[in-house]
């Protein structure tokens, strides 16, 4: 099965009610805004989606609800972050059963696997699913690096097709292009490096602040791909203080506060997370408020430059 690993792919947040249930109404509002902005896929169950706090039934509900909601307009991708190989294989089987069209997968959780073990883990999942797979390389946060040599071993599997790179090293894009050409698709996984990564040849952007600002995020991608770098940079510079909210241990709380500002979410998180408090809350709100104050001129630029 092929997947077009390109474009803007929101790592969507999971919405909850005051009673700690899934808020499918607000979730749907956000997803519809993403679709209207022109995103190219939707990724469920990532860190931003608070996947570690979700039950299996909730994951099933989210996948099936999203698949029904998008009605084939874009692929639904499920993130796999499991502690065991058996658990990862089961998660892949369930994702396919519930209607997901592709998988994004992290190395084993908690246990710091060796290079050999990490390759064996990814290989086992690839051999037990027909879904296309994107390897998630995030050595900064998860302490396991998927090296180019490891990726070379994995690309013998036809369904391992892409890498989400969150190594925070912009030269990785060039290294992968030099080594693999177009054999692997590359998506930037760090909001604050997205424009630079795409200019250097990345195929797309697994984005976080897109949850609150979908039109602006898609505009940057479209302008870069159209060669309108100057216009893309103008939006990107406005966006940067907001994008920096993604590179924080409290990225979920930060981005959910931004969603409140744009009417696309609530700030309800699931324990053990709690809403931001005190001076940190004030700091984040100030960034969001400044972004909202100046947003009108950016949206005017989006409307005038994208698609012309």
Low-confidence parts: none
Give the termini distance in whole angstroms: 34 Å
Mean pLDDT, all residues: 96
What CATH calls the topology of one domain is: TIM Barrel
CATH architecture of one domain: Alpha-Beta Barrel
**Widest beta sheet: strand line-up:** 1-8-7-6-5-4-3-2
The 3D shape can be described as: globular
Tell me about the largest β-sheet.
8 strands, parallel
**How many separate helices?**
13
| Oligomeric grouping of the chains | single chain
Class of secondary structure makeup: alpha/beta
CATH superfamily of one domain: Aldolase class I
Number of strands: 8
Radius of gyration: 18 Å
Highest CATH level, the class of one domain:
Alpha Beta
- Portion of residues in helices? 40-55%
Order of helices and strands: EHEHEHEHEHHEHEHEHHHHH
Strand fraction equals: 5-15%
